[in-house]
Every structure is written in structure tokens, then in C-alpha cells.
Amino acid sequence: MPTHPAPEERLVNLVVALMATSRGLTKDTILASVSGYREQSDAGSSKDALEKMFERDKESLRELGVPIETIGDSADPDDLREARYRVPSGEYALPADISFTPAELALLGLAGDVWAGSSLSADARSGLRKIRSLGGIVDEPIIGFAPRLNIRDPAFGALQRAIEQARVVEFSYLKPGQQEARRRRARPLSLVEYEGRWHVLADDLDAGAERTFLLSRIVGTVRTTGNVFDPALREGAGDRALAGLAAVAQQQHAHLEVHPGTEAALRLRRRAVPAAQGLQVPFVDVHVFADELASYGPEVRVVDPPELRDLVVARLRDTQLSHEVRR
Fold first, then answer.
1. Which residues contact 290 (CB under 8 A, 6 or more apart)?
2. What is the pLDDT of residues 110-139, one digit of tens each?
3. pLDDT higher than 50, residue 145
């Protein structure tokens, strides 16, 4: 039985193909050539199902910050029947005022050597060759494309497939403070990344409402059932999930003192809001944020809120005790 590339591999293959052309690729060319769609087509998936998969993939990539440009008919821009898609190469060009030291260039060269050999899978190269044979213009060379896809939580793959197939899932979910995980039955609607962590927006069948679950809190394996749901429920789910997470973050802010020039300062300043002193950083989950802050060690001190400060201190003390036990 042929195996299909994982969803994240399909996304990488799609980005590589769209970066490799300045003219753009039509949807039909992508579905027939890019690994991940091609196998689904060969396995008997309908064109309608493949087109919906492509639309979801475009949305996922845009949420990850990959700019996908749609080029319509010049005579009728609203006519997208023969639209072409590409990732503009200029979006990834370095500003002219950026320079590197010899040591930095050496490190970048080493990284480039690694990616030059591994960023394009055999399937991706095969897809590019097929695009050429169909008359697509593919720019050369593709050098060291490094996808910005994080290592997934174990539950990611099963949930992604369940979303694509519109199937109900079951999983165990452990919330902070609980001793045992609770079994959940849900219709998974969208996977979104927020503050570097993956969440799934799902229709919780037992609660009778939509809930956003943090993937790192899913215990064990996700079981995909034979029960299907209306795929229309997925429409707009990604936007709803991100809006909900952003709304929670806006209601919770941490006052932090951070040592300048440290990793903590670099990472936290990206999310900080203007403050008279220190950093004011919004957060979604106090326990997850405490894990992050504790990982910075002495680089950051929590001024407020007290609950967050206590959680960070507790984690640092546990780390200290574990080191003392090992001595």
C-alpha cells in the first residue's frame, strides 16, 4: 500500500514548488505535480477534495507567515479559474543594509550546505521535474530553503488527518491542577500556532461548545473514529481560534524585568507591548508561560502577577533540587 507524505511534508513541498517559479503555477499543475496531492489523486481522491485540501494548505501557510500571491487574469482579475500561485522571492530577500562578519558567514555557509542537501526531498525534486515537463517555468537554483515549521506535538499528525477527513476524534486531555486526564470527544476544526505553540479548535461534543485545546496537554494517542461531520463546520475555524487566543492574551499581561542583550530579551520583546518600565507581555496560559520564563533562568524576573511569579519560582526550585539530587 503506498504511503502518503505527512501533512507537514506536503506543506514544505508546496512552498518549495511555489518558490521555484516566478510565473506562478496553476492549481491543476500543483495538484498533479506536488508530492502530497499527487499521491492523494492517484489513490482516488476527487478533484473537489484535493482543491479543498489545497485551500486549507494555503491558509495554513499564510498563518505561518508564508506569503502566497494569487495572479489572476489580467483582463479580468476577479476570474480565478486559471489563477496562478507563487511565493514572491522578494519577500525572502535580505535588506541591503544587513551585513555579516566572516565568522557569521562561515556559520551561514555551513547551514546552507546542510539545507542544500536536505531541503528538497526526492519527491520534491520529482515534482519540480514534472512541472518542467508540463511547461512550467522553474527558476534555478533553489538554494537552501529552510522551512519555518516547528517540531510538531505527537498529536498533530492525527488531528491534521482527522480535520482533512472531517472525522470525530477522541483523546485524553490533562489540564493543570488535575490528577487524571479527562477523555474528550470532539470534531477537530482547525490547527493553529500561537506564541510558538500548537492548538486545535474543536467542537467539544460533551460540552456542546467549541473549545481550544493545547496539543502539548493531549495525553497518549488521538483516536480517529468512523463518525464524520459536515466539512462546512471547518470554515473560518482558524480565524476564530486565533481571535479567541488573542482576546485571552489581551486580558492577561505580565510585568517583567529582563536583562538586555539576552535570549529572553530577544524573544520577549517581540511580543511585548509598550510599558513605562520593564516589559509588559501578554500571555494565554499562565502555566505554559511560566514554563517558558523559567527556561530563561536569571535572565528574567517576574514582577507581576503574583501567581505567575510563584509558578516560575516553583519551577526554578524544582530544577535546583533535581541538580542537587544528582550530585
1. 308, 311, 312, 315
2. 554 444 444 444 555 555 444 444 444 444
3. no
Round to whole Å and give the CA distance between 322 and 318. Answer: 6
Q: Which three cell numbers stand for residue 25?
A: 503555477
pLDDT higher at 134 or 315: 315
| pLDDT, tens digit (0-9, with 9 covering 90-100), for 247-291 | 998 899 999 999 988 888 888 888 888 788 889 999 988 998 998
Which listed CATH number (2.40.280, 1.10.8, 1.25.40, 2.30.30) goes with 156-235? 2.30.30
Q: What are the phi and psi torsion angles at 148 (to 5°)?
A: -95, 60
Provide the pLDDT for residue 270.
83
State the pLDDT confidence band at 95, using cuts at 50, 70 and 90: low
Amino acid 85 reads Y
How far is Cα 145 from Cα 234, in angstroms, rounded to an integer?
31
Q: Which helix (H) or strand (E) holds 200?
A: strand 197-204
> H or E element: which one contains 294?
helix 286-295
Span 207-228, pLDDT tens digits: 999 999 999 899 999 999 999 9
Residue 309: CB atoms within 10 A of its CB come to: 18
188 preceded by cis ω (within 30°)? Answer: no
| Closest to 9 in 3D by CA, of 28, 32, 37 | 37
pLDDT of residue 4: 57
Q: Which three cell numbers stand for residue 94?
A: 535580505
Per this entry, what is the length of the chain? 327
Provide the 3-class DSSP secondary structure of residue 61: helix
Q: What are the domain boundaries of the chain?
A: 7-133, 156-235, 252-326
Grid cell for residue 83 = 489563477
Q: Which element (helix H / strand E) includes 317?
A: helix 306-326
Q: Which amino acid is at 203?
A: D
Query: Using CA atoms, how far apart are residues 3 and 20, in angstroms rounded to an integer?
Result: 25
C-alpha cell at 268: 520577549
User: Cα 69 vs. chain centroid, distance in angstroms?
Assistant: 19
User: How far is 46 from 69, CA to CA, in rounded Å?
Assistant: 25
